[in-house]
Amino acid sequence: MAGHGAQEHPHGADRLCAAGDRVYSRAVRRGRVPRQDAEPVPCLLELALLHPDPDDMDWLVPTSPQEVMTRLLRGVHDEVSASQRRVDSAVEAFEWYAGLGRLIHAPAGPEGTAIRVLEGLARIQAAMDEATQACTTEVLTVQPGGIRREAELSEGLHRALALRGRGVRMRDLYTHVARHGQGLLNYLELMGDAVEARTLDEVIDRLILFDRTVAFIPANSDRTMALELRHPALVSYLVTVFERLWRLAIPLSAALPETGIEGISHREQSIAALLAEGHQDAVIAERLGISVRTARAHIARLSETLGAASRTQLGVRIAQAGLDGPTRGAPAPVILPGRESPTAR
């Protein structure tokens, strides 16, 4: 019976079928529905959106939409975190293998090398220029580090303009902090429809992909070394990571979602989630692309808003306010301890 229902309703809680949507919505509005109403939509029971009423087994009661939303967001958050961990692990492996030299059976010349180590900024830029000249379709980039400096934007401007002139489409991922940089806004205005930009709370390390055939990633912390990757499986994997992050990101033209908690900004909600994971101030600052000083200022405001007198108490208050989960999307409004609801007056 379960298998038959799964074949007829091949979807998750993030995209209900039309029949499931109607029955679940009715259950939320009325508080419960007769069990027979759910017989045509076994997906609702399989996905735990409906469950038996303990007082009357002939009725089914709904799981609250807030709980379903939290479940979905945690699943997305876990998926992205796992992808980021796999990318970090792959980068470490690339560095180790690159240190052993070129592949024994790789043909000579840059086009036949699966992994090339590029040492020195001049060599990295030369390789990027070559890839730019050969590019005909699209460029995908991930740009971490917060607000982009004018020097960084100017460094690759000639490549971007050359790509735009040939009709190449570009998609760029940044952290939310990058929204506040005037240099980036000027760059996007100059590039016009050739570039589409989106932002996330945090992104993976720098990544540039040309035509889904060649990728560039850093090979050391100060980015004076890079890896040029042409192995189809490696490049395909990085494209998949990019596309998943792109799907979760927010277009630069759209506003960031409200937190639903008075006095707490989207950035402070992101910081609260990282604090709940046990990260230190410096790690939080690096992952969100802000300075340690700025991170600590936000943490101080969080403590004041949540009424926490210590870091330990702040962790408890973060959990109580529901700030210890992913930040994509706006949760239901939360009234903090000691604050009455505006509608209660």
Fold topology:
Blueprint: H1 2-8, H2 18-30, E1 33-34, H3 43-46, E2 50-53, E3 56-62, H4 65-99, E4 115-119, H5 121-134, E5 138-143, H6 150-155, H7 157-165, E6 169-175, H8 182-191, E7 195-200, E8 207-210, E9 214-218, E10 225-229, H9 232-248, E11 250-251, H10 266-276, H11 281-288, H12 292-306, H13 311-320
Parallel strand pairs: 5-6, 6-7
Antiparallel strand pairs: 1-3, 2-3, 4-10, 5-8, 7-11, 8-9, 9-10
In short:
The protein is of the alpha+beta class.
Helix-and-strand structural type: alpha+beta
- Determine Rg (CA atoms, Å): 24 Å
**What percentage of residues falls in helices of 4 or more residues?**
40-55%
The poorly predicted ranges are 1-7, 102-111, 328-345
Number of strands: 11
Could you describe the largest sheet, including whether it forms a barrel?
8 strands, mixed
Kindly report how far apart the N and C termini lie. 52 Å
Nearest-integer average pLDDT: 78
Major β-sheet strand ordering: 4-10-9-8-5-6-7-11
Question: Quick one: overall form?
Answer: globular
* Percent of residues in beta strands: 15-25%
- The ordered string of helix (H) and strand (E) elements is HHEHEEHEHEHHEHEEEEHEHHHH
Tell me the number of helical segments per DSSP (H or I, 4 or more residues long): 13
